[in-house]
Amino acid sequence: MNADRIAALSTSGVAVEVVAQTGSTSADLLARAATLTGPVLLVAEHQTAGRGRAGRSWLSSSENSLTFSLAWKFAGGPQTLLGLPLAIGAALGDALGLLGVQVQLKWPNDVLKDGDKLAGILVETQAAPGGGTWCVIGIGLNLLMPDEVEAQLGRSAAGAPWLARMERDVLMAALLDALANCLRLFEQQGFAAFCARWNLRHAWQGETVVLLDNGAVVHEGRAAGVEETGRLLLDTEAGRITVMAGDVSLRVKA
């Protein structure tokens, strides 16, 4: 992949960097946040220590996946960023749809294809010197899913062979533009601008689901989408409740 070509193909105005290998693109950008002067996209052709929510690892390879992080500064504090991972999911879903890959969204931060995970989103924050908040948005997108990788994961996962045939620089530029447009709109309107778009792609709308915390069921009910701050709406026997996206796992009830 070529940083100059990605930047030239993109209309975002974001600085682009490409490295052959690193541990984690998100960790690298967080370490540099205090010295950044503008948005930066960091793409790794191979990432050895990618991570997801709750410290989970993200397996990737240069042949089979696209791994990158985008550092973006917001003027407000972390409290102004409610729903940001979901907004990014909605934008990513729309961008993939335009590229010919139809996806669904799982609360709070997964992109699914045919019921299996295609991409994951991890948003991490750090206070910016002089005020504001740096957000580092890490994304791992499966392009191909060989049997041996599924065996390592211990579960089925999705691939997008159509995207794997695209020129990587063109694909990355298209995703960067979608993300930059998303973040600019989020700065102005918050998650309310994305709520309907997210609900249209909700994978488990109307399904009976359980919320797990360390393996224990903490809530059970029928998934009813999300509301305008990004909280999950769950219709339980006791009535409708809202759930924040803490360290919980959402599953369809067996």
What does this structure look like?
The protein has seven helices and twelve strands. It has 254 residues and is α+β, with helices and mostly antiparallel strands. The protein has two domains: 3-200, Bira Bifunctional Protein, Domain 2 (BirA Bifunctional Protein, domain 2, 2-Layer Sandwich); 208-252, Roll (SH3 type barrels), CATH 2.30.30. It has a seven-stranded mixed sheet with strand order 1-2-3-7-6-5-4, sandwiched between helices. A five-stranded antiparallel sheet has the order 11-10-9-8-12. Helix 1 (3-9) crosses helix 6 and helix 3 packs across helix 6 (168-189). The protein starts with a helix and ends with a strand. The mean pLDDT is 88. Keywords: ATP-binding, Biotin, Ligase, Nucleotide-binding.
Write the layout of secondary structure elements.
Blueprint: H1 3-9, E1 15-22, H2 25-32, E2 40-47, E3 65-74, H3 84-98, E4 104-106, E5 110-113, E6 116-127, E7 133-142, H4 147-153, H5 161-164, H6 168-189, H7 195-200, E8 208-213, E9 216-226, E10 232-236, E11 239-243, E12 249-252
Parallel strand pairs: 1-2
Antiparallel strand pairs: 2-3, 3-7, 4-5, 5-6, 6-7, 8-9, 8-12, 9-10, 10-11
Helix pairs in contact: 1-6, 3-6
